[in-house]
């Protein structure tokens, strides 16, 4: 697996607790905080627009519990952080990666994050395919058939995979981070907020756009944007090729 940082969101309705967790997470290597929430309803409203790999949730909150939120985010790994030990069995019933009791120590938090990381690195380096949940049911998808991947316009949690035979499929509830964790890191790269491409479709490129070998309905080459955030990784990968 490449050394890409895992992206997380944090939810805790108590501000001091949230601030402390944010400080601790800043000391955990290989992790980036996308957003913190102190209101579960705000998280529910916004999470579809965020690109994250896992979440850290408080359990006891007004309106909704952490378990309610975990059910909504059921395709993402969850770490529960709470002052109450009695919820641990419930947490594991819903497949939580870990359950940490407050006050949280840095060492204990690192352990929990390592468990998340291991979920993302279970693939073997030479794997050529993976199983995904799609709009047509479970599918075995071979990586060498994928040309590029785009966010679904209908639901940004879903991603559309476009294949060389001009077919496509919608993969349900997966982040770009989750996809990049299973795709071969030498062959696929993220180029902007909405897209991952296979390097084999790159024909020409400059610092802002990529002309691909794919054609649109008018038989013109499809041009994709290369954003500043992902430019360095794209250039480095091409240099290695």
TrEMBL record:
Mind telling me which Pfam families this protein's record contains? Response_reg
Specify the superkingdom: Bacteria
Q: Which PROSITE patterns does the protein's record reference?
A: RESPONSE_REGULATORY (PS50110)
Entries under Gene3D superfamilies matching the protein: 3.40.50.2300, LytTr DNA-binding domain (2.40.50.1020)
Q: Which residues form the Response regulatory domain?
A: 7-117
**PTM-bearing positions, type 4-aspartylphosphate:** 58
Keywords (A to Z) from UniProt: DNA-binding, Phosphoprotein, Transcription, Transcription regulation, Two-component regulatory system
Could you tell me which PANTHER family the record lists for this protein? Answer: REGULATOR OF RPOS, TWO-COMPONENT RESPONSE REGULATOR ORR33
- The name of this protein is LytR/AlgR family response regulator transcription factor
What is the organism field in this record?
A: Sphingobacterium tabacisoli
Lineage of this protein's species?
Bacteria, Pseudomonadati, Bacteroidota, Sphingobacteriia, Sphingobacteriales
């Amino acid at each position: 697996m490449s050394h890409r940082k895992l992206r997380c969101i944090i939810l805790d309705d108590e501000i001091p607790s949230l601030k402390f967790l944010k400080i601790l997470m800043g000391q955990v290597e290989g992790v980036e905080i996308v957003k913190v929430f102190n209101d579960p309803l705000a998280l529910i409203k916004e999470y579809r627009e965020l690109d994250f790999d896992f979440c850290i949730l408080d359990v006891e909150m007004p309106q909704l519990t952490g378990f309610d939120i975990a059910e909504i985010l059921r395709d993402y790994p969850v770490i529960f952080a709470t002052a109450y030990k009695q919820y641990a069995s419930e947490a594991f019933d819903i497949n939580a990666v870990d359950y940490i009791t407050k006050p949280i120590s840095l060492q204990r938090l690192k352990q929990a994050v390592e468990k998340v990381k291991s979920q993302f690195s279970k693939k073997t380096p030479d794997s050529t395919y993976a199983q995904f949940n799609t709009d047509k049911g479970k599918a075995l998808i071979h990586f060498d058939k994928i040309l590029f991947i785009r966010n679904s316009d209908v639901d940004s949690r879903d991603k559309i995979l476009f294949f060389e035979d001009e077919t496509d499929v919608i993969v349900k509830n997966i982040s770009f981070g989750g996809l990049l964790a299973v795709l071969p890191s030498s062959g696929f790269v993220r180029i902007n907020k909405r897209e991952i491409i296979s390097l084999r479709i790159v024909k020409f490129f400059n610092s802002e756009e990529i002309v691909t070998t794919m054609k649109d309905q008018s038989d013109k080459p499809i041009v994709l944007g290369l954003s500043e955030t992902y430019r360095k990784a794209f250039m480095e990968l091409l240099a290695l090729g």
